[in-house]
Amino acid sequence: MIHILAAVSPEATIGKNVSIGPFTIVHANVVIGDNTKIDSHCEIGYPSALADGLPLVIGANSLIRSHSILYEGSTFGERLTTGHRVTIREKTVVGINFQVGTLGDIQGSCTIGDYVRFHSNVHIGQKSTVGNYVWIFPYVVLTNDPHPPSDISIGATVEDFAAVATMSVVLPGVTIGKGALVAAHSSVARDVAPDTVVGGTPAKYLCDTSKIKLKNDPDTSAYPWRKHFHRGYPESVVAEWLKEFS
Amino acid sequence: MIHILAAVSPEATIGKNVSIGPFTIVHANVVIGDNTKIDSHCEIGYPSALADGLPLVIGANSLIRSHSILYEGSTFGERLTTGHRVTIREKTVVGINFQVGTLGDIQGSCTIGDYVRFHSNVHIGQKSTVGNYVWIFPYVVLTNDPHPPSDISIGATVEDFAAVATMSVVLPGVTIGKGALVAAHSSVARDVAPDTVVGGTPAKYLCDTSKIKLKNDPDTSAYPWRKHFHRGYPESVVAEWLKEFS
Amino acid sequence: MIHILAAVSPEATIGKNVSIGPFTIVHANVVIGDNTKIDSHCEIGYPSALADGLPLVIGANSLIRSHSILYEGSTFGERLTTGHRVTIREKTVVGINFQVGTLGDIQGSCTIGDYVRFHSNVHIGQKSTVGNYVWIFPYVVLTNDPHPPSDISIGATVEDFAAVATMSVVLPGVTIGKGALVAAHSSVARDVAPDTVVGGTPAKYLCDTSKIKLKNDPDTSAYPWRKHFHRGYPESVVAEWLKEFS
């Protein structure tokens, strides 16, 4: 299952039934869980002094798509799924079932919950905190320096079930509340209350999320999205969500 | 012409005079036209269940620059030219002479016409429709979900000769009319009339395109651009364009 | 120091103590300075007719991170440091100690000074001019075509010590003055005076940079940043900066 043109360190800890594609490098300080598939052209466990010797840990049943780079010192729960060309730096701790799309760039020292989904080409600054079931869409940037460049770094926080739409910037230290929605192309400079929609530059309150109706069913609110959108989540998770609304 | 360090499936159909660079993978379900050059570090025909078994077809006389990834199930006319690190997913159908710049990310199930040019780092959401002779500039995003995340996907449409300037977002279901111009850093939430300029967030009508004059010739309109900008188009195409204005 | 799975042209000029990783290509028309480290999966000296036969020159003590692509015809001073997946095209001339982050895309024919730092995922259009000690943050685009597409190309200029914050667009021919700050998510259509802050679309004057105070010390201005931010600069450079304020 390890391709003859892969370069795998004999010191790496590799689980059962792991597949590693051609032209992929696996460095020494790496632990890969069972049944994980790593595509071609990846670099797994990129060495970094900032990792303080911590290993890269990839949970079981993961899929790392081609050309991705994961640094030493980060930890991923089971069923990590990446797109292509993902870069994740050191000391980021991620829960189970994380999906991160093509070109995602996670800068390190971040905390990310369970069942989080990042679409293509997001940039997550150092020290960001992301809850569970969060969605972040393409070209979103989470920043951390209030007056760049400086030595101050204050990560943003995105709480459970929140969604940040495409091309938005979240400024340092801002908290996006539970279930909130940031409209496309916004700059969020202040905290966003739970279950509200904000938009613009700087982002302002637009309405409660419940006011947004489904395009194909104008009598039904599009939010909280967990009432109607279940694609790819396990039944047990969905059952837990629906209990809240029954 | 196939480098000794390329990994090419014996089942792939490869035309005459095809060149394949080192560290490139060509999967089985692939048809490559004559005289095509594929650089190093590419992955051609990335397998996907969503391709429904359809092959990747690359027209003759194409150039795929290094580190690009093309999925099974998409079809490209002759003279495809990519930049580096392009990703194009399954079931996208593209005309002739398509140029897509470095870091372009085309999400699949899109329809793209002839002589289309995408500059670097565009993100084209699933089900987008792009006409002929269209220009899309860096960091433009074509979206498809009106209330993300949801199961509804309504692609945007960009008609012939339209240009979408850098860092703009086109919202789901919007049509950018023939020859229209979207100014940089806009969010387009409503249809744009042909030969008009829109800008801002949300984008509003600014003027007709004919009001914009060439910087180096203030007596001449910069639009329709096909009257004066011909670089890289074949003479026969340009002759057809100019007939309209004679 | 050259990995057995690297493909290095015997015609390349390679200094002493140079390290070249697996799956990296070094083309013929390349000069690499002493003590430089090139990671895996890179393409160094990508051939281009637009380079007019000029070599790629990489100064001594440089670090090129994995998956990066540098074209023929560009020149870099000592201590170049790149992130991953950087693309730099032909005829760009760069001073010493340049740092360019992951996914940076420099389009060629640019001039970049000494000690410049680009964060991740910047797009620098052809003919841009960047001074010394400049900072450019993620998803910033420097454009050059006033009415795209056209044959006119007028690069933007960013003067010494200026900082352009994330997701901003600098329009063609604009000059960002010395020590100025462009706020996040701005479109800069007019010249920016030295030591001022601009923001918005289109960007307007907001205040002088001296009005912005450090988050952790409200009695101290955050700008000029060179008074307090010295991370990674040599002592001799910092001493020179501080002389101005003593």
Written overview of the protein:
The N and C termini of chain A lie far apart (47 Å). In chain A, the strands form five sheets. In chain A, strands 1-4-7-10-13-16-19-22-25-28 form a ten-stranded parallel β-sheet, with no helix packed on it. A nine-stranded parallel β-sheet of chain A has the order 2-5-8-11-14-17-20-23-26, with no helix packed on it. Chain A has an eight-stranded mixed β-sheet with strand order 12-15-18-21-24-27-29-30, with no helix packed on it. Chain A is globular, with a radius of gyration of 19 Å. By secondary structure, chain A is mainly β. The longest helix of chain A is centred in the last third of the chain and has 9 residues, at 235-243. The first copy, chain A, has one domain (7-209): Hexapeptide repeat proteins (UDP N-Acetylglucosamine Acyltransferase, domain 1, 3 Solenoid), CATH 2.160.10. Chain A has one helix at residues 235-243; strands spanning 7-8, 13-14, 19-20, 25-26, 30-32, 37-38, 43-46, 56-58, 63-64, 69-71, 75-76, 81-82, 87-88, 93-94, 99-100, 105-106, 111-112, 117-118, 123-124, 129-130, 135-136, 141-142, 157-158, 163-164, 169-170, 175-176, 181-182, 187-188, 196-199, 204-208, 213-214, 217-221. The interface between A and B is large, with 38 and 33 residues.
CA radius of gyration of chain A: 19 Å
Uncertain parts of chain A:
none
What is the CATH superfamily of chain A?
Hexapeptide repeat proteins
Under the CATH scheme, which class of chain A? Mainly Beta
Shape of chain A: globular
Largest sheet of chain A: 10 strands, parallel
- Would you report the number of β strands of chain A? 32
Q: Can you give the mean pLDDT of chain A? A: 97
